[in-house]
């Protein structure tokens, strides 16, 4: 279900009333999810190598840009992306095509499919089998660290540097998908996006590789005069502040930022209202690439600009070397 990331998840004092009230439910969620992850004694293996790119928290960690950057960095033939296809209308395994909409495949899957073949499947084992049948030698999973059904040759944990692990509580009291001490044992390396919180280095296990990266807005996708345009910005992502930060970073003059729930399906009425707001200011609309794939055709697209972002590794050679050496050592 689409949601907005609660701000109290990132209150490190843990004195927030909501955190205190939800703490017992978070403890139960963490215990059940942690037990499920530890209990799994058997899993299916793929004939292809499997890289899983996930995170330990819910909402807006940067997994999809990292998956795309990793695929581009490795540049391997016969590689595919595998994702569950959040919010799609079917649970059967399928190959994403140009005929799919966001409702059919999920917004992340449509972004992944722009770069290499992409398979959507809530059942990761079935998705891996389909990838094998299509000749895949490498599967890059977008999300799935908490799904133990398929063996992963390499597990990369993405961390949103400024937000870290939040208040260190499990859903719904905090952002963690499982107790941190359990989640950290399910990881081979970390990718920290953006300037990290002070406590991240202290919390991460010693001896595991940590790579730094950043999200880079692609201003070449905007009009040359974008800095003079009074934009009405809108998005439906887990961390709308990250979009606002990207706009500020490149000097966009944004008069408004309308934030919807993550994976929100925009209606014609909502888009008409946004268009009218932009027209009243003599400006244009601007949104994220992920949101754009969920926007239906209509007159609003004539005045809509899209700001893509890409993930830039601080040391791409080190990342590529680590991945290739790790995969070659797996038997």
Summarize the structure.
By secondary structure, the protein is an alpha/beta fold. It is 31% helix and 21% strand. Helix 8 links the parallel strand 9 and strand 10.
Give the rounded overall mean pLDDT: 92
Strand content: 15-25%
Q: If classified by CATH, what would the architecture of the largest domain be?
A: 3-Layer(aba) Sandwich
Q: Name the structural class.
A: alpha/beta
Order of helices and strands: HEHEEHHEHEEHEHEEHEHEHEEH
Provide the low-confidence segments as ranges: none
Spatial strand sequence of the major β-sheet: 3-4-2-5-1-6-7-8-13
- Any idea how many domains? 2
CATH class bucket of the largest domain = Alpha Beta
What is the CA-based Rg, rounded?
20 Å
Name the CATH homologous superfamily of the largest domain: P-loop containing nucleotide triphosphate hydrolases
**First-last Cα distance:** 38 Å
CATH fold annotation of the largest domain: Rossmann fold
Structural notes for this entry:
- By secondary structure, this protein is of the alpha/beta class.
- The chain has 2 domains: 38-215 and 312-329, Rossmann fold; 219-307.
- The chain is built from 11 helices and 13 strands.
- Strands 3-4-2-5-1-6-7-8-13 form a 9-stranded mixed β-sheet, sandwiched between helices. Strands 10-9-11-12 form a 4-stranded parallel β-sheet, sandwiched between helices.
- The radius of gyration is 20 Å and the shape is globular.
- The mean pLDDT is 92.
């Amino acid at each position: 279900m689409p949601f907005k990331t609660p701000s109290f998840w990132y209150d490190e004092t843990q004195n927030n009333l909501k955190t205190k009230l939800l703490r017992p439910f978070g403890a139960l969620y963490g215990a059940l999810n942690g037990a499920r992850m530890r209990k799994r004694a058997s899993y299916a293996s793929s004939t292809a190598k499997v890289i899983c790119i996930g995170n330990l928290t819910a909402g807006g960690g940067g997994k999809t840009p990292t998956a795309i950057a990793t695929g581009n960095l490795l540049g391997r033939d016969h590689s595919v992306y595998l994702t569950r296809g959040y919010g799609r209308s079917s649970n059967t395994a399928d190959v994403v095509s140009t005929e799919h909409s966001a409702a059919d495949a999920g917004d992340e899957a449509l972004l992944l499919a722009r770069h290499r073949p992409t398979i959507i499947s809530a059942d990761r084992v079935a998705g891996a089998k389909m990838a094998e049948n299509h000749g895949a030698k490498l599967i890059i999973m977008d999300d799935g660290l908490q799904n133990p059904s398929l063996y992963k040759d390499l597990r990369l944990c993405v961390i949103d540097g400024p937000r870290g692990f939040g208040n260190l509580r499990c859903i719904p009291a905090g952002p963690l998908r499982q107790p941190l001490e359990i989640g950290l044992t399910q990881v081979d390396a970390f990718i920290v996006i953006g300037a990290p919180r002070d406590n991240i280095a202290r919390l991460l296990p010693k001896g595991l590789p940590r790579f730094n990266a950043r999200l880079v807005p692609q201003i070449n996708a905007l009009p040359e005069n974008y800095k003079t345009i009074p934009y009405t910005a809108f998005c439906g992502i887990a961390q709308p502040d990250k979009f606002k930060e990207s706009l500020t970073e490149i000097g966009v003059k944004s008069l408004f930022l309308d934030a919807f729930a993550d994976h929100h399906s925009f209606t014609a009425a909502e888009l008409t209202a946004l268009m009218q707001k932009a027209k009243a200011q003599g400006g244009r609309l601007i949104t994220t690439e992920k949101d754009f794939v969920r926007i239906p055709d209509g007159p609003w697209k004539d005045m809509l600009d899209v700001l893509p972002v890409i993930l830039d590794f601080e040391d791409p050679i080190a990342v590529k070397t680590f991945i290739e050496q790790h995969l070659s050592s797996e038997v």
